[in-house]
TrEMBL record:
The lineage of its organism: Eukaryota, Viridiplantae, Streptophyta, Embryophyta, Tracheophyta. PANTHER family: PROTEIN MAIN-LIKE 2 (PTHR46033), PROTEIN MAINTENANCE OF MERISTEMS-LIKE (PTHR46033:SF8). This is Aminotransferase-like plant mobile domain-containing protein. InterPro entries: AminoTfrase-like_pln_mobile (IPR019557), MAIN-like (IPR044824). Coiled coil: none annotated. Residues 21-212 form the Aminotransferase-like plant mobile domain.
Length: 212
């Protein structure tokens, strides 16, 4: 059994998670799960990148957008998620340095030893934002909610193979918490999963990323 992360789901985050369309995902993330790596490997071996389907003895099947909506509770209608998975520096508003914006939105800046280019070590995130202080004012709660949402996005939906870093490319989204629910997070998560599955189908790739 393993848990994906160590940041506690605080009741004070719930309104922001609901606005973002991520509350159901947060509730799932707050539980313990068992990942059957042998079963996952068996499915990977049957994945065909050219059709995005699993070739099974009884025919073809795949993971659909409806599956994502039902199982993860993510919104599948709305604006597409873009501008955050590559060329991150282009999308920083007002030409501000990324880390300046990070400090404005989260109230703290990580030490250089905890940063790898535009990613922060998960351990630092968990230690810094693991538990929102009792009696915190609304602005502090918003900062902790932003950190929790960034953790959800980068460790649950758009995880890389390292699984131990949180990228700050999500700043443009958590800066406007009230608008996050207008994006089709389900479509983006499914596209990322397909991309990860197609990559791991290459015999030279040995580790699977994505929303497993």
């Amino acid at each position: 059994m393993r848990r994906q992360q160590g940041m506690r789901l605080d009741d004070r985050y719930v309104p922001y998670l609901q606005m973002a369309g991520l509350y159901h995902l947060a509730k799932l993330n707050d539980r313990w799960f068992q990942l059957d790596e042998t079963l996952v490997s068996a499915f990977v071996e049957r994945w065909r990148p050219e059709t995005h389907t699993f070739h099974m003895p009884f025919g073809e099947c795949t993971i659909t957008l409806q599956d994502v909506a039902y199982q993860l509770g993510l919104p599948v209608d709305g604006r597409y998620v873009s501008g955050c998975l590559s060329e991150f520096h282009i999308y920083i508003q007002g030409g501000r340095p990324a880390w300046v914006w990070f400090q404005e939105l989260l109230g703290v800046i990580p030490p250089p030893s905890q940063v790898q280019k535009y990613a922060v070590n998960c351990s630092w995130f968990q230690e810094t934002f693991g538990e929102c202080p009792e009696g915190a004012d609304e602005e502090t709660v918003r900062r902790y909610a932003r950190a929790y949402i960034m953790m959800l996005l980068d460790t649950q939906l758009f995880a890389d193979k390292s699984g131990n870093r949180i990228h700050i490319r999500w700043l443009p989204y958590v800066a406007r918490l009230e608008e996050m629910g207008t994006y089709s997070w389900g479509s983006a998560a499914l596209a990322w999963l397909y991309r990860c599955m197609c990559r791991v189908a290459n015999r030279h790739v040995v580790k699977l990323a994505g929303p497993l």
